[in-house]
Each structure stands twice: as C-alpha cells, then as structure tokens.
Amino acid sequence: MSALLLLLLGLLSLFFFFCLLRGRNRRDGEPPLIKGWIPFIGKALEFGQDAHKFLEKHKRKYGDVFTVHLAGKYMTFIMDPLLYPSIIKHGRQLDFHEFAAKVAPVTFGYPFVVPALQEQIHRSFKLLQGDNLSTLTESMMGNLMLVLRQDHMGGERGGGWRSASMYDFCNSVMFEATFLTMYGRPAGASRHSGMSALRDDFVRFDNMFPLLIAGIPVWLLGRTKAVRDKLIGYFLPHRMSCWSNTSEFIRTRSGLFEQYDALRDVDKAAHHFAILWASVGNTIPATFWAVYYLVSHPAALQRVRQEIHDLLRLDGVEFSSDADLALDREQLEKLVYLESAINESLRLSSASMNIRVAQEDFSLRLDAERSLGVRKGDFIALYPQSMHLDPDIYAQPQSFRVDRYIRDGRLKTDFYKDGQKLKYYLMPFGSGSSMCPGRYFAVNEIKQFLCLLLLYFDLQLEEDQSRATQDLSRAGLGVMLPAADVRFRYKLRTV
Ligand code: HEM
Ligand SMILES: *[C@@H]1O[C@H](CO)[C@@H](O)[C@H](O)[C@H]1NC(C)=O
Ligand SMILES: *[C@@H]1O[C@H](CO)[C@@H](O)[C@H](O)[C@H]1NC(C)=O
Ligand SMILES: *[C@@H]1O[C@H](CO)[C@@H](O)[C@H](O)[C@H]1NC(C)=O
C-alpha cells in the first residue's frame, strides 16, 4: 500500500472520528435523526436536488416527524398537515422573525434592522391590505392597461397573430405594472425609461437568489454583487423623490427610514429593493403558471372567460376591445372560477418552506398522544408542497383542475386527510406570523392580468413543444420558475 493512500486513509478516519464527536445524537422523545454521511453538508445536496421527493422518501421510512441535518442545521420536518395547527399556533416558542432577520439583510445588502424599525416596518405591511388595497388595485389596473396597450395592442399589426415567449410576456408586463403601482412614475412621464435593463438586472440577481439565501457570500458569486449594487442604486432617495404617484406603502417606508440617522442612503435604497423582490419575485412566476395552465386547458380558459363576461354583463359594463377596462376590488372578489384557477396553479407551483426557530428547550405537543422534544435553536419546518401534492387530499394531484376549489358554483373549503377536515389545505403564502402581507394584492394583480389577457386576446400554445416543467432550484423558497420558456400566440379579440 502506498504511503499516500495510507495517509489519506488516516486522514479520513480522523475526519470521521471528529464528526462522530461533534455530531448530534438522538435523545429520548426526539424524532428520528437523519444525518447523512457527509459532515456539515449532511443531507443538503440530496435535499437540494428534489426536496419534495426527498421528504416523501423519508416520510415513508421514518413517519410524519423526523429531523434532517441540512448544512449545519438540524431541521425537524412536520409532514402530517393535521399537525400543522399545533406548530402554527406556537408563535411564542417557535419564532419566525429571528430567522428572517438574519437572512434578509445578507441577501439584499442592508444592515441588521434594529427592533424599533423592524416593528414599524411590520406595521407598514397593513398598507398592503384593507382600504389601501383598493387604491393599490385601482392603480394596478390602470398600469396594466397602460403597459398592455402600449406594448401589445397597438400598431398596424393589431389584427394578426403574434408569437411570443410566455414567461417573458408575463414578466415584462407584470414587472413594470407592479413597479409603477408601488414606486410611482417619473414626473412628466407615464413610464420609466430603462425598464427592460432594470428587469434584466433583476433576473440576473434573482437567478442567484437561492444561493444567497443559502448563505453563500455574495463576493463568491461573480458579478452578483455589482448587479445588486446597481439595482439598489435605482432606489436612492434623490431618485425616488422625483417620482410621483408613489404608493402610500412605499412613501410610508421612505418616511420611516428618514427617522433613522444610522441608515445611509444606500441602506434605505436596499430596503426598497428588497420590497421590489418581495413584490415580483413570486408573483411573476405565479402569473406565468396561471396563464400556462389556462392556455393549455382551453375548456378551463373558456369557463373563466365566461365568468368574467357574465360579471361585466351583470354589472352593466359594455365591454369593447377599443375601450379600457376597469375592474375594482369588489368585482375581482366575485370571480371565483378565476380565483380557483389561480389557487390551483399556486397549489401546483409553490414550494415555500415555513421555518420556525425554537426559542427554548421544550416539549412540543403535537396531538393527544404525541409530544416532541425540541432543543433551543432547532429549526422546525413545514413543507406545504407535500400537502399540496398529497393524493389523499387532492385526487390526481398532478393535474390542473380549474374547479378544484369550487363546489356548486361556490367556494369549496373542506378538504380531508384520514377522514379529518384540514384547517390548512393551501399554503402558498406561508402561515401564522410569517404569512405574506402582500397576498391579497398578489392575488388581485394576477386576477387583473388574467382578466385583461382573456378579455382582450385569443391565446394558443404553439405546437410541437413539450410540456412545461419546473426548475427545482427554488424549492423551499417560493414559486418555482419554469425550466424553459413556452412559446405561444396571441391576437386581439374583436368584440
Ligand atoms: C404569488 C405571489 C406571492 C407569494 C407566493 C408570496 C409568498 C410569501 C411567503 C411564503 C412569505 C413568507 C416567507 C417565510 O415564511 O419565510 C412572504 C413574505 C412576504 N411577502 Fe409575499 N408572496 C407573494 C407576493 C407578494 C407581494 C405582491 C408582496 C408585496 C407587494 C409581498 C410582500 C411580502 C413581504 C413584505 C414579506 C415579508 C413579511 C415579513 O417579513 O413578515 N409578497 N411572501
Ligand atoms: C390607507 O389607509 C389609511 C387607514 O385606513 C387611510 O387613512 C389612508 O387614507 C389610506 N391611504 C390610501 C392611499 O388609500
Ligand atoms: C395617480 O394615482 C391616482 C390614484 O391612484 C390616479 O387617479 C391618477 O390618475 C394618477 N396620476 C397619474 C399622473 O397617473
Ligand atoms: C384561494 O386561496 C386562499 C388562501 O391562499 C383562500 O383564502 C381563498 O379562499 C381561496 N379561494 C378559492 C376560490 O378557493
């Protein structure tokens, strides 16, 4: 045996010995522990490749509750959705914000947020809901109409079929309309110049997002830091102060930042950039999947289109493709088939992990029979995608059914697991204290976009394409992107 090989073997065994010493062992009352053989990394690689498959496999072997060693963290997964309520209601012992407060600043490049500011930021989220949502919704409608009309409905080519890439189409319209709605417009112009360059930079940053969230230092990621700096630079106070019609939400946030002398202009700008990410990062892929599923299910599309026409007729609105359309918040709420279609595409495409950090050693009661030993600092995770794709809850879980959430023309809210009614059955927006504050706005803007698309255009998939599949690199972080874009045709309807 060569000396080199001996040396290697020696090192290897030392290494394993070291890991044995340092590794965690299961204690009584704790769930099964899955460590993997690679120190530190644990099972992270396998998890990262296909989280859903990984979790299903371990569920079959270890049951509904197990702990996985993922990149230095011990994460306990609660797989049975009937147990979700017992986790979600433990807001005090199982905290969400500790985790977010660490991850968001390094991802978006702002300094640690002091608790007082954190509290005020949290309160500002109310401006995405309630009365203020009506204003946002109204403004979004105008901006969608503006961008669609100028970019896709004008010109001599007006009458014929046009061909485009579907993700690209959704991205360009939703990105700009959302941007205008949240941040406003330059004084004296209806649109910002350089929007497509901004969007390209955004996509570049967004592609690196999973790596940043995973804690890879930004300086290891090539040009990512430069791209992020450029994006942040867009929101510097002297630029934003020239924009008009900025939403109450963003204006309030700017006002908050002004009260903190410790924040530099770039820090304020980085906060605004983070909100841009929050507001389009998931909404755009969610819009894509909703459009994709409807266009690839023509009967479903026709059902939804009919619902919109029926609503307009009932409300006495004379629709004509020459005139602009306005649909307010109350009208959007009546479109249940449309909402069911959106929920159904979120069920199929979202995979956000809900993470909580244990604040103390304690025994977590799961149900009448079971409790769980939890150590301070442990991560508890829910992975709702497993519920979304559970055939016991959703028959033929992989197929798109436009009326999945409808019964007898009304909202269906009873879904069952093992004969018991589920409190939570659809969780694309997180849960409890970490629930997305933009969820109502998000659903409304997707509804508006779809209404306009279905009313103004005929839509077809181009032939000879394979079905869209998901790029899994975002599993755990939100709505998945398609692995490849899809070609489609659209043509102005003449009504
Ligand atoms: C389909 C679209 C969307 C999805 C699926 C989505 C999903 C989520 C999820 C799962 C979280 C919680 C993160 C966690 O638990 O770690 C979250 C947080 C958040 N979302 Fe959304 N979101 C969407 C659209 C929006 C929009 C349009 C806005 C704003 C206009 C927004 C603003 C936020 C903010 C500010 C937070 C952080 C809340 C906090 O720190 O407590 N989201 N979102
Ligand atoms: C936002 O809501 C608050 C309180 O409901 C209200 O005073 C304010 O006028 C609203 N702003 C907008 C722009 O709707
Ligand atoms: C500004 O927003 C209000 C309401 O959101 C709208 O009525 C008005 O037309 C907008 N102004 C411009 C210049 O777009
Ligand atoms: C869609 O899902 C949301 C929760 O994400 C729920 O509040 C709403 O009632 C659902 N709508 C329909 C039509 O199922």
How would you characterize the overall build of this protein?
By secondary structure, the chain is of the alpha+beta class. It folds into two domains: 26-112 and 355-382, no CATH class; 115-354 and 383-492, Cytochrome P450 (Cytochrome p450, Orthogonal Bundle), CATH 1.10.630. Helix content is 48%, strand content 14%. The chain is built from 19 helices and 21 strands. A six-stranded mixed sheet has the order 1-2-3-12-9-4. Strands 5-21-17 form a three-stranded antiparallel sheet. Strand 2 and strand 3 (73-78) form a beta hairpin. It is globular and about 70 Å long. The chain starts with a helix and ends with a strand. The relative contact order is 0.15. One 2-acetamido-2-deoxy-beta-D-glucopyranose is lined by residues 135, 138-139, 245.
Low-confidence stretches: 1-21
Overall CATH architecture of the largest domain: Orthogonal Bundle
Q: How confident is the prediction overall: mean pLDDT?
A: 90
Report the portion of residues in β strands: 5-15%
Would you tell me which CATH topology of the largest domain applies? Cytochrome p450
Number of strands: 21
Q: Counting H and I runs of at least 4 residues, what is the number of helices?
A: 19
Morphology call: globular
Number of structurally distinct domains: 2
Biggest β-sheet description:
6 strands, mixed
Q: What is the spatial order of strands in the main beta sheet?
A: 1-2-3-12-9-4
Main CATH class of the largest domain? Mainly Alpha
Bound molecules: protoporphyrin IX containing FE, 2-acetamido-2-deoxy-beta-D-glucopyranose
Sum up the structure in keywords.
single chain; 495 residues; alpha+beta; Cytochrome p450; 2 domains; six-stranded mixed β-sheet; three-stranded antiparallel β-sheet; 48% helix; disordered N terminus; binds protoporphyrin IX containing FE; binds 2-acetamido-2-deoxy-beta-D-glucopyranose
